[in-house]
Structures are given as C-alpha cells and as structure tokens.
Amino acid sequence: MRPGAESATARRAVWRPVLNAVSRYWTVVALIAAWALWIRVENLNQIVAPTPAAVFGDVLGHPTVYAADLGWTLLNACAGLILGMALGAGSAVAVWASPVLSGLMTPMALIMRSVPVVAMIPVIAQVAGFGNTAVLAVTVVVSFFPAFVMAGSGLRSAPAATSDLFTVLHASRPTRLRLLLLPNAAGALLVALRLTAPTTVLAAMLAEYLLGTHGLGKLFADSVTFMDTARAWGTALVATVVSVGCFIAARAAERHGTARFS
Amino acid sequence: MSARARHRTLTAAGVVLLLALMEAIGRVGLFGSSWPPLTEVVSYVAEPVTGDLLGRALAATAGAAGTGFALGSAVAVVVAALGVLLPVVQPGLDRLAAVVNAIPLIALGPLLITTVGREGTPTVIAALAAGFAMFIAATSGLAAASTPHHDVFSALGASRRTRLLRLQLPAAVPLLLDGLTLAAPAAVLGAVIGEWFGAPRGLGILLVSSMQNFQIELLWAAALTSALVSLAAYLVLTGLRSLATGRFL
Questions:
Q1: What is the pLDDT of residues A131-164, one digit of tens each?
Q2: Which CATH number, 3.30.70.20, 3.10.450.50, 1.10.3720.10, 1.10.357.10, labels domain A61-261?
Q3: Topology of the domain covering B57-248
Q4: Chain A residue whose CA is closest to B214
Q5: Structure pTM?
Q6: Mutate to test the interface with B, among A45, A102, A115 (most CBs of B within 10 A)
Q7: Torsion of CA A196, A200, A201, A207, to 10 degrees
Q8: B68-105 pLDDT per residue, tens
Q9: Please, how many CA atoms are within 13 Å of residue B235, restricted to the half-sphere of its CB?
C-alpha cells in the first residue's frame, strides 16, 4: 500500500460521520436559517416573532424555568402512559378469553384509527373535572386505545406451530397465556408505546394549555398572554426536542424488546 | 352462521352496546351533569337553531380539513418523489418531516396566526398533519417495488424518471391508499386543533367555547360531530382502498 493511501482512508473515516450528519440535518439547519432570514427581511418586531438566537438564548439562559414545567409535563405524560397502557393491556387480556367479548370490542379498533381523541380534550376535561386530574385523564385515554388494540392483536397472532405444541401438551389456558401469548403480545405493546409516547406528551401539553394547570402547556399559554414570544417559542423548542427524544427512546425500547421477545 | 357473518353481528352488537353504555352513564348520572344521556344530545342537535349552528361549524371544519388533506397529501407525495429522483436530499427530507411532525401543535398555532392568519391556520395544520402521515406512507411505498423488477429496469437502462413513473409509483399505490386512510383522521384533528387558536368559526372553536361556558350539550354535540366526520372520512377511504387493492396487488 502506498503511504498516502492509509492516511486518505483515515481521513475518510473522520469525515464520514460529519458527512452523514450533514446529509441528515441540512434541512433542519435550512429551516432555522430560513426563520432567521424571514425575520431579517420582513424586519419583524421581537413581539411578533423572535430570532432563533433570542429563542435559543432564552432556553439556555433560564434552564430552571423550563425544567420545572417540563417536569410536570413529563410526569403527566409518563403517569398517563403507564396507567393507560396497563389498563389497555389488562383489558385486552380480559377480553381475550372470550371470542364474543373480543367481537364486541371490535369498534374499539375503529375508534383508535379514526376518532381524533386529542380533539376530545374539552369533553374529557368536563367529565374529569378540570385541574391536573383532567390532564392525567387525557393522557390515560390517549394511551389506552393503542395499547388495547395492539395488545389484543398481539394475543391473537401467536405462531400457529407453537400454539399447536401447547395444545398437544394440554397446556391450561393460564399457562398458554403466560408462556406463549404474553411474550408474543409484548412486542405489539412496544409498537403501541412507540406510537403513543410522542402523542401523549403532545396531548399533555394541549390539555395543560387549555386547562391552565401546570407544565409546558401552561408556560406557553402564560408567555403568549404576556407577549413574551421568545419564551413561547422556547417552550415550543423544548417540547419539540422532548417529543423527538420520546420517539427515539420508545423506538430503542421497541428494538431492544423485539430482539428480546422474538 | 359463517365466521365472517358472526364477526359482523358481534361488531354491530359492540357498536350498539357502546352507544347504550354512553346513554346509561348519562341516565344514571355517573359523572353528574357533565355526561348527558346520548338521546338528549341527539334531540338537542335536532333543534333547528343548534342544527344550524353545528351545520355551519361542520362546513367550516370539513372545508379546512378537506383542503388541508388534499394539499398535504399532494405535497407529501411530490416531496417523497423528489427524494427518489434526487437521492442526495432524501435523508434530509426524512429528518425534516420527523422534526416538523414533532413540533407541538399548540406551538404551531400562534406561529401560523402571525404568518397565515386566523382563517388559514386550521387548513395549514390539517395539511401538516395529513402530509406527515402521507409522507411516511409514500416513502415506504416508493421503496416497495421488488428487486427483480428493479433489475429489469436497470438492465433496460431506464432513467430514474421512467423508473419512478412506470415502476415505483404503481407499486406504491396500496401503501399510498393506506396512508390516505391514516391522513384523513389526522387532517380532521389538525383542523379542529387549528381552530382552537381563535378561528372565526368551526367545530374546534365550538368545543372550546362550550367547555368554557359549561354548555354541556353543545360540547358533546360538537365532539360527536367531529368524531363522526372523522369516522366517515376513514370509512370512505377504507372502502376506496378495498376497491383498489384488487387492481394493484
């Protein structure tokens, strides 16, 4: 090998991650650049729209303000996600034992696919009595339907050959549930988690915004009221980052779980 | 009775049971006055004054959702096709779609009001929501053609454009139709939430104002109307998909 070739390979190894990052994120950078340019060209006031620098500066300059409200939103979202998914998976197991009950529950799948549950926040708030309980109720309802539907289809889609083995060995229904169906449904439940996690954070924020309790949604509503646009957009930035983070975490959990359960 | 007919009967029974449950909770008063019986909501809607009010709100929301749905889906397919024609830009487009989708809707509301105004906000949010669902469907659809088919096109020296028009787009049709069934409810949701930020009329503004004024029957009527619009859009597109799958699969 020529002496130059080795260093060229090394140089390429250094540049590869940089090029990858550029090819993936140039649009995001372009979006931020367009935002800055728009404000410069239109000569917009800070009250109408803040510059990217002002927004990033506000987030980095006041981390404690954001952290407290972010904590509330994440708490609402996580508690709702856990409760909702547990209820959904539990109901799916309860319904599994009876074909009649599963048939009766088919409309649930239709509701999950077609009805905009997040738009029902005013109704849920009315029924659950405003306050933070209502925010929690919203996140529970939002995460219930996907968990119920996905866990149900997971329970029904056990591999036929393994299922036959359990039949041949005269496995009781609880044994079959524990050893065959639940591990099979775990993968489906992780898919439900990936679908629901970002939506739950969004739903928590919308509910907080509308009901004015605690959390990022409330921080946003207050900033809009007091015309603190840099803080309002900062809230949006934090929420976007958190939502992307939730999606990435849920996807990692799904990949890890799929490797573990199948 | 065949398994299919049995399943259908059970599903119908499930719908009836769900409606009966909603009625019963209202009659018993499990949640006090905030959960009225279904029949009361229906008779409330049947009154000419509320019927009118809901009709006008429905027309506004359906218009915004429909326009947003068409616009968002069309742009999403064009952008996905652009990614196929210019592979260099594809990873960037994927990330952009994910980030734009992650921007919370409440944050988009005030931003859009300063840019496109109160009237246009529901349409734009509906377009963004539908467009993301469609973009995901379109990118995986355009990658759905089988390797042997691609090999034939390579062997014949087909250009990227020919390959896109003659192979990838026809192969993408089933997934595109799947995407449309997801995009329709997303568009309705986007339009309703877009209206929360002070649109002049629509189901979303009706939902928020009736919640704030404790007009419980109006709240339920608006919620059920938006659920029914979304359900109708979904069912129409599902029907369309099952008609088309025979042709393209």
A1: 888 888 889 988 888 888 888 777 777 777 777 7
A2: 1.10.3720.10
A3: MetI-like fold (1.10.3720)
A4: A126
A5: 0.81
A6: A115
A7: 160
A8: 999 999 999 999 898 888 888 888 888 787 777 777 77
A9: 10
